[in-house]
Design goal:
This protein has 6 helices and 18 strands. The protein is α+β, with helices and mostly antiparallel strands. A hairpin with a 2-residue loop joins β16 and β17. The longest helix is centred in the N-terminal third of the chain and has 12 residues. Its EC number is 5.1.-.-. It comes from Streptomyces lavendulae subsp. lavendulae.
Length: about 270
């Protein structure tokens, strides 16, 4: 069984966010086997995808596992999967994925980008939590809770430098997020090609930091759209590894656009 590692939200190897991708011929193996593979791959997410019979609402069934458990929504591993299916001639044009969060679509453009259609996350303002500020080691400008599909805390910080230099207490953050904590700030210099920055911490799922979290941008898009007065923006996410996510806010849907590159093509020797 072939397994690939694809770097998502980048066009250069060893940048962006790596995801494992396994294309299956038949039904999903047991959850225990899928989880063991994801733990062995040990990336923030491993995607498992299988073809569906023609005539339905979706073409492929897609599931995502972190090293610690299954998640409802994942952007970078969806981008990696769509890139791989197109690269290997297994799908062309619009791809419809059946996932735990509903039907998601991804479409490769003539310029090599992939655009995904995800549900926009709602944002609920909450009072700043002193314990979260202490765990982050930074003063909170504003704090929002997000919708059920992602379940993140969205934390606005003062500036890009504060986001970049953040060194949070990951163990302390575990108590304050259902899924993760996203920190964000406006770009210091938008002429560099991005409008806002972010970083994502997911200790609940055994991921101290996720380099580029596509699903988090379904909350970052409405957040920054309200502040910048635009529906099309570009976000830069990451610490040591970084990637670019182009977002288009379209009401209840958010379009996420990025690039991907396959860096490893290998064989999984243990069958289900």
């Amino acid at each position: 069984m072939r397994i690939r590692i694809v770097d998502a939200f980048t066009d250069r190897p060893f940048h962006g966010n790596p995801a494992g991708v396994l294309v299956l011929d038949g039904p999903f193996p047991t959850d225990d086997w899928l989880q063991q593979v994801a733990a062995e791959v040990n990336l923030s997410e491993t995607a498992f995808v299988r073809p569906l019979p023609p005539g339905g609402d979706a073409d492929w069934a897609l599931r995502w596992f972190t090293p610690a458990g299954e998640v409802d929504m994942c952007g970078h591993a969806t981008l990696a999967t769509a890139h791989l299916l197109n690269e290997n001639g297994l799908a062309k044009g619009l791809i419809r994925f059946e996932a735990r969060c509903g039907v998601l679509t991804a479409e490769a453009g003539p310029d090599g980008t992939v655009t995904m259609d995800f549900p926009t996350s709602s944002l609920t303002p909450v009072d700043p939590v002193p314990e979260v500020a202490r765990a982050l080691g930074a003063e909170i400008v504003s704090l929002h809770d997000t919708a059920a599909h992602i379940g993140d805390l969205l934390v606005e910080l003062a500036d890009e430098r504060t986001v970049r230099e953040l060194a949070p207490d990951h163990a302390a953050l575990r108590a304050y997020a259902r899924r993760g904590v996203i920190v964000t700030a406006p770009a210091e210099d938008p002429s560099r090609g991005y409008d806002f920055v972010s970083r994502g911490f997911f200790p609940v799922h055994g991921i101290d930091e996720d380099p580029v979290t596509g699903s988090a941008h379904t909350a970052l898009a409405p957040f920054w759209s309200a502040r910048l007065g635009r529906t099309e923006m570009t976000g830069l996410q990451g610490g040591a590894r970084r990637g670019l996510v182009r977002v288009t806010l379209a009401g209840e849907r958010t379009l996420l656009t990025g690039r991907a590159v396959t860096v490893i093509d290998g064989e999984l020797l243990t069958a289900p």
